[in-house]
Amino acid sequence: DNSSSPILIVQDGKFVFVNRILEEITGYTREELIGRNAFDHVYPEDVEVVLRRYRERVAGLRDVDSYSFRVVAKDGRVKWLTMTARRIEYQGKPAVYASGVETTELINLNEELRKKNEFFSLLSKILRHDILNDLAVVRASIEIGSDEFLERALKRVDSIVEKINDIRALEEAVGALKVLNVAELVEKIVETYFGEASFKLNLQEVHVEANEALKSAVENLIRNAIQHSQVPHVEISVEVFREKDECVIRVADNGVGIPENLKAKIFEATYSRKGGGLGLFLVKKIVDMFRGRIQLYDNKPQGAVFEIRIPAKL
């Protein structure tokens, strides 16, 4: 019981021994654990694997080995254990003895590093996709040469500079989150596209924990509405509001909409519309990064509606 490692013995699927360290990790006292179903404390998604390994070990079908799984502590926190388990005889009956270490911090660190690597990869795609789109508009505007189009080109140049600054900020933050006012973020995006569409805004002040990648996601939705609406006069409605514990960002247009047979494909990396590149794939990846979701549905009487939902800041 003086071991600095968590130790347990499970027999007939129940705890028959736990040491002090396991009490500290789980928050349960020895009296609360002994005689209880051991698998009731395993994280639901891991129960099947842990139970199967236990049964195989008791039956003598599995040698000594180590593996990691999650447990749910008394306070509801999820913790990782990496345990080495073996079959023993305990009071004349087969049982499983396991000892190991708590690896919550290590596994969380590995997951954080994985997310950061994914973040930098996403960052590279955003840089290429968004800036190339802006440069295409600048080139076309310069070729046309009218004052109106030159002014539009200058706006896009400013947008490119701002994106490069955003990328620099994102690199410095390494994916760190900060509190953003979503209404202010949307207003700044819409200013860039005045003259290319008519906008109707209904923006409530809602704060979220995100970073500048959210700006790129919303801008992609607005740009797609302009590029793919296929109507003489593009009308875009943008709403920001709070619904329960979520921030809702809704972008609707009056275009031709998305054909039914394409709706399931538009967020895939392999899907591309003319001039659209990886836009919607990037939007979904960004929204996923902020623990949110995005959905598409038809606008009435015509057009498409994209709706982003991410956790709102309390």
TrEMBL record:
Residue intervals passing through the bilayer: none
A Pfam family that the UniProt record links to this protein: HATPase_c
Signal sequence, start to end: none
Record-annotated PAS domain positions: 12-61
Domain annotation Histidine kinase: ranges: 126-314
Stretches of the chain forming a coiled coil according to its record: none
Superkingdom in the source lineage: Archaea
Gene Ontology MF terms: transferase activity, transferring phosphorus-containing groups
Protein name as it appears in the record: PAS domain S-box protein
